[in-house]
């Protein structure tokens, strides 16, 4: 896999999607088999996952969450360097379709799938910390949600780990609160 160094947003979303599959966020395991993992990586040219990959990526998921919950920027960068280093090689320059040079981190040819995912997520989150800072790692604002996420948006106003699900949960809570206020 060739991981772009400057365009980190897509890799950050893989990290967010991965962390959001956890039972602590969903109430049940949402990374339950190779099909779930294949879905997470649909945009990437990787080998078809097998059951063993799923187990390893679940372990990686805990590491990614630890990055998002790290107390300091330096700790986050240290953890991310380890993730990126699992399968990441020295950066290379490649021309993009318009002929401009771009930095990429290639992964080792014989890398295991979990190593490729670790490198993808590690490089992307390092890019996010470099460009936007450590306070882009946040806890989900939805009531009762245990999710965490990285906000790669330009404005930096993202509040939910799964915007459609958790944003909606918040709307329902607000609606109920309003109804209670009216009934009083
Ligand atoms: Zn959430």
Automatic annotation (TrEMBL):
Residues 136-179 form the Zinc finger CGNR domain. InterPro entries: ABATE (IPR010852), ABATE_dom_sf (IPR023286), Znf_CGNR (IPR021005). It comes from the Bacteria. It holds the Pfam family zf-CGNR. Gene3D superfamilies: Jann2411-like domain. This is Zinc finger CGNR domain-containing protein.
């Amino acid at each position: 896999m060739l991981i772009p160094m400057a365009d980190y947003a897509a890799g950050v979303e893989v990290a967010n999607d991965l962390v959001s599959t956890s039972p602590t966020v969903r109430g049940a395991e949402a990374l339950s088999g190779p099909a779930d993992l294949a879905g997470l990586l649909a945009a990437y040219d990787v080998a078809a996952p097998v059951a063993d990959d799923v187990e390893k990526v679940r372990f990686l998921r805990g590491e990614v969450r630890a990055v998002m919950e790290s107390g300091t920027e330096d700790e986050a960068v240290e953890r991310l360097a380890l993730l990126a280093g699992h399968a990441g090689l020295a950066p290379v320059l490649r021309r993009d379709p318009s002929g401009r040079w771009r930095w990429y981190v290639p992964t080792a040819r014989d890398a295991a799938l979990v190593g490729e995912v670790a490198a993808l997520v590690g490089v992307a989150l390092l890019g996010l910390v470099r460009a936007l800072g450590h306070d882009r790692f946040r806890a989900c604002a939805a009531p009762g949600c245990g999710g965490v996420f990285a906000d790669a948006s330009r404005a930096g106003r993202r509040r939910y780990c799964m915007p459609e699900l958790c944003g909606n949960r918040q709307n329902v809570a607000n609606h109920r609160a309003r109804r209670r206020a009216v009934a009083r």
